[in-house]
Design goal:
disordered N terminus; single chain; mainly beta; 30 strands; six-stranded antiparallel β-sheet
Length: 375
């Protein structure tokens, strides 16, 4: 009989941690007025290949690294239809709908079916590190099917700020009579914020809006990443009725937890007692201006079956003899002294002095022991 010392089962404690994943909802919106200034005299022209209907130029360098929704970018593509793409989408889509968002990092200061004319547009990077600014300007763009440069037109800009990662849309003069444009930010066909109107203080929402009109001259719309950071974690899995500690960290000034069955807490690291079910717990933190959230999962292990172990009562064996032990459920036998494993995976006890052998199922406490008296 081959001797193998029993290994005591050690349950590893897994900590479930999830930091905030930044979406467009984490961007704080503000609107204000500032004098519009064209970059025609200092910027690089988009070129004649960009003039006309549905034109996109790719590979335009920002001159610095810009972070949008936790992804770094150094280049982008720019479409004549009033949108840009950080991943450099070559799309020429003109129909402004959520389903036509062709990439992550899709920004649209004035997305509509537009036509560019010479000079069409300019771009430039100004300032010094770490405070450089990339500016893209659409100049004299008309609405399809107005191919004449003398048709009603508009001027607008997009500015990207190094380090702060702020996005701004600036609006100059326009003479549009009717249009159905969209203004907003997005990171996928389901993650976007658009403006329901082009007024002086609109409130972005999750409906993909198309709006008739144009912001007044010198209007600025700003999208700022929320500076609040937040993480959430939970202590290791427990059996039903166990105790779990939630742990949160944040740079916010206020916070609260929510969870299953209406659970709430304003403690940053609350203790849950008598936990009976697994579930997600969300920590929401705010600095009074914008909010961020993080989620962690509390895991409750199912109650394992109670093993039937054999023999079921006290047994007496002679010194040096052996007795086979068996269990109806997988588990760990303890103590390991004088325990051996045979090919049939039974665990016999043999030799020694009076001992008690316990059977531990893998996720619960010790069950009633079998006692073997050695004579």
């Amino acid at each position: 009989m081959k001797k193998a010392f029993l290994r005591i089962l050690i349950l590893l404690s897994f900590i479930n941690v999830k930091a905030n994943a930044q979406t467009t909802a984490s961007y704080f919106f503000s609107a204000f007025s500032s004098t519009y200034s064209s970059i025609a005299s200092t910027g690089t022209g988009m070129g004649s290949s960009w003039f006309g209907d549905d034109r996109t130029q790719t590979g335009i360098g920002l001159g610095f690294t810009f972070n949008y929704c936790l992804t770094n970018y150094t280049t982008l593509s720019i479409c004549s239809n009033g949108w840009t793409s950080f991943p450099g989408s070559g799309s020429i889509t003109w129909t402004n709908t959520a389903g036509n968002i062709a990439s992550a990092g899709w920004l649209f200061p004035f997305w509509d079916d537009l036509i560019t004319h010479s000079p069409g547009g300019y771009y430039q990077t100004t300032g010094t590190a770490p405070n450089r600014i990339f500016t893209m300007e659409w100049v004299g763009v008309t609405l399809y099917p107005a191919f004449s440069s003398s048709a009603p037109s508009g001027n607008f800009q997009m500015k990207l700020y190094e380090t702060s990662n702020v996005i701004e849309y600036w609006y100059g003069s326009n003479s549009y009579t009717s249009n159905s444009a969209s203004i907003g930010i997005s990171n996928s066909t389901t993650d976007y914020r658009t403006l329901p109107d082009f007024g002086t203080s609109p409130t972005p929402n999750t409906t993909f809006n198309t709006v008739s009109g144009f912001p007044v001259a010198n209007q600025v719309y700003r999208w700022s990443p929320c500076p609040v950071t937040v993480t959430a974690s939970a202590s290791a899995a427990v059996c039903p009725g166990g105790t779990v500690t939630l742990t949160g960290t944040t740079t916010g000034t206020s916070w609260s937890w929510t969870g299953p069955s209406g659970y709430t807490s304003t403690s940053l690291s609350p203790v849950l007692t008598g936990v009976t079910a697994s579930g997600a717990y969300v920590l929401v933190a705010s600095n009074g201006t914008c909010t961020m959230n993080a989620t962690t999962t509390v895991t409750v292990n199912p109650t394992p079956p109670v093993p039937v172990i054999s023999p079921t009562a006290t047994a007496t064996i002679c010194n040096g003899a052996s007795l086979a032990l068996s269990s109806s459920a997988a588990g760990v036998w303890s103590p390991s002294t004088y325990l051996f494993m045979d090919a049939a995976f039974t665990t016999p006890y043999t030799g020694g002095t009076t001992s008690t052998v316990y059977m531990y199922p893998t996720t619960v406490t010790v069950v009633t022991p079998i006692t073997y008296t050695v004579t």
